[in-house]
């Protein structure tokens, strides 16, 4: 592979921010002068099916893959060379011919509490209205506060922030990482604990996807080595191992978070009933893990949670708060 290295990106502000960050990082790794970045590593905008659908029927028509399908087709057809995704939105399996070449260092993995009127989650009054489209956030919030009224909130981050500012909800929850990449962290009232709001698998991490056949080309090997963050890649492997075993989807409330401290991997994974009244959680550790070890630990713990919790998938028709 040679220049130009074309980066395919969705058109949302978040996708453009993430792709722009990675465009600059790849440019630095390859010593591309600032003035030449736009021609050497251009951004190519691609509209995905997921971007066109803004209502809850999204859940019924195909979930996560809707945001990646057209981009993956462009990679396979050779119209682009690189794609940047939120790891959280990447399905468990890569299509034939594609791979995740690098996983850069993770941003803050926590969820953020956003509210016009209240300082913290604990300060919400009885029966307060909480906006979220995430079954995981719904279940985790209800586990702490069964009195809350959870209501569907879709749309991009700006839309959600505007609706919170207008008082359509007493509070909303968003990933800290997405807000940080958009430069809107001033709206965060509280960063929620990793324990109470165990994040979605891969939350806060990015995935850099390429054609598998091109990964060892010298130009690629260079930026891949510079951008891949092994600790993040190992933690994400554990979380996604758990996700696979839990058959996690947007119809199940599933969380997984791993970190490496003192050369050991610590993984927590859980499933909740949609109303938060039941919670099945497992934790595990592994010294000096490889990515394969981490994935295996995730699969084992996720499998235990799955066997214990049973099938918690909800009918999307009922997923309305
Ligand atoms: N499901 C939507 C989505 N996909 C990725 C992010 C940003 C967070 C991330 O990079 O993990 C968000 C928004 C959110 O959850 O608030």
Automatic annotation (TrEMBL):
Key word Hydrolase present: no
Binding note for cofactor: Binds 1 dipyrromethane group covalently.
InterPro entries: HemC, Porphobilin_deaminase_cofac_BS, Porphobilin_deaminase_N, Porphobilinogen_deaminase_C, Porphobilinogen_deaminase_C_sf
Protein name: Porphobilinogen deaminase
Alphabetically ordered keywords of this record: Porphyrin biosynthesis, Transferase
Pathway noted in the entry: Porphyrin-containing compound metabolism; protoporphyrin-IX biosynthesis; coproporphyrinogen-III from 5-aminolevulinate: step 2/4
Sequence positions bearing S-(dipyrrolylmethanemethyl)cysteine: 250
Assembly description: Monomer.
Coiled-coil intervals, chain numbering: none
Chain's role: Tetrapolymerization of the monopyrrole PBG into the hydroxymethylbilane pre-uroporphyrinogen in several discrete steps.
Superkingdom classification of source: Bacteria
Catalytic activity: 4 porphobilinogen + H2O = hydroxymethylbilane + 4 NH4(+)
Domain Porphobilinogen deaminase C-terminal per the UniProt entry, residue ranges: 234-304
Cofactor: dipyrromethane
Family: Belongs to the HMBS family.
EC top class named in words: transferase
Cellular component, GO annotation: cytoplasm
Domain Porphobilinogen deaminase N-terminal: 5-215
